[in-house]
Design goal:
Blueprint: H1 2-19, H2 23-57, H3 63-72, H4 75-92, H5 100-143, H6 149-174, H7 179-196, H8 198-213, E1 221-223, E2 229-235, E3 239-243, E4 249-253, H9 254-257, E5 263-264, E6 272-280, H10 286-299, E7 310-316, E8 321-329, H11 335-352
Antiparallel strand pairs: 1-2, 1-5, 2-3, 3-4, 6-8, 7-8
Length: 364
């Protein structure tokens, strides 16, 4: 940077000696400032691509690569806006302060500063979102848990909201707007809107509560108090979407979800229990039946080894001997499939060994 300032001063002195310090001088000065700012942006991009990328390749994380990509996408635009701003300032110095041209250049200055504010805010938002996302991924990997996309989305929205709000306040201040009166008007307007949209606000607050409290996460299988079941498809600010077994989307307002009881089959762990009940006739050899059923358990590959699947003679009813097969599978999504397969295998095995199922007693 010192080199460029020294170079610019030397060129500036030469130009003054040749043409003096008139309007032509300021036009040439403006062009030189623009060219130098573009050159600085190009050099920074070159250094980031060559040196920055080489350094980032030596690290195990991809965070530094993404941060460099963010800088590469904004460095030339930032340097060009700054160069244009100083160029406009250079020309404005030669104009009378009350002239129309001066006011035009002054307005252009404010536009350029506004653009610079937006570009810097955009880069900061992208950088902060990358840092928080990478931090959450690393924490999830360390704790051996799944990455919470809903919470990442919440943080992204909050960061974007605050960055946008600060940018708007800075831009309005540049144009000489009274921020205090604007905030007062916005406050009164917000109160009116709030009273007119209480349900929407309640849903939004409930949405943030769900994202922070984690009663369920994306992909979890849940059961609502109404009896509807499905997998959590999306957790939005206003509502939560659940994909049921018929591939239909159930949209539930968040304010309802925070007030009702929900069964989460996927928490705290994905594994769940599979239970199959059946009743055999009274004249069945119970020990032989249990030996045969043990073979069924050994053949079922989706049962977890620990805890071991078991067979119980749970009840002697008036209809016969009531057995219960109990085992655990890795995911609730396999529960119905495994239970269905077990029923078929039990039925075929009992039939092959001439063991009869109990017939229900008919009341006279």
């Amino acid at each position: 940077m010192i080199f460029f300032l020294s170079l610019f001063n030397n060129i500036d002195e030469k130009i003054i000696q040749l043409i003096g310090k008139g309007m032509l001088y300021y036009i040439i000065n403006t062009i030189i400032i623009l060219l130098i700012s573009i050159l600085i942006g190009k050099i920074l991009k070159f250094l980031l691509r060559k040196i920055g990328k080489q350094i980032s390749k030596k690290t195990t994380t991809t965070l530094d690569d993404r941060i460099i990509d963010v800088l590469l996408s904004h460095d030339v635009s930032i340097s060009l806006i700054i160069g244009t701003y100083f160029s406009v300032q250079s020309i404005a110095e030669t104009l009378p302060k009350r002239s129309t041209f001066y006011r035009t250049f002054d307005f252009a200055d404010k536009i350029l500063l506004s653009l610079l504010t937006i570009v810097i805010a955009t880069a900061l938002v992208r950088g902060i979102n990358l840092l928080t996302r990478q931090s959450m991924i690393a924490t999830a990997a360390k704790n051996k848990t799944s990455f919470d996309r809903a919470q990442s989305l919440l943080i992204k929205r909050v960061v974007t909201f605050f960055a946008s709000s600060i940018s708007i306040i800075i831009i309005l201040d540049l144009f000489g707007q009274n921020i205090t009166s604007l905030l007062t008007i916005l406050g009164i307007g917000s109160l009116a809107i709030g009273l007119a949209s209480q349900d929407t606000i309640a849903n939004i607050i409930s949405g943030y509560t769900i994202m922070l409290d984690h009663p369920f996460r994306l992909g979890d299988r849940i059961k609502l108090q109404s009896g509807e079941e499905g997998d959590v498809y999306e957790i939005g600010v206003r509502s939560t979407k659940i994909l049921d077994f018929d591939n239909n989307l159930i949209v539930v307002p968040n304010s309802e979800l925070v007030k009702t009881r929900i069964i989460n089959y996927s928490a705290p762990h994905e594994e769940t229990r599979v239970v199959v009940d059946f009743t055999l006739a009274f004249d069945t050899d119970s020990r032989k039946a249990k030996e045969l059923l043990t073979q069924v358990l050994k053949n079922e590959k989706e049962f977890l080894v620990k805890p071991e699947p078991e067979i119980f003679l749970v009840k002697l009813t008036e209809n016969g001997l009531q057995f219960k097969i109990v085992g655990r599978v890795a995911s609730v999504k396999n529960q119905i499939k495994v239970a269905d397969r077990l029923r078929y295998e039990v039925y075929e095995l009992m039939r092959a060994n001439d063991i009869k199922f109990a017939a229900p007693k008919i009341a006279k």
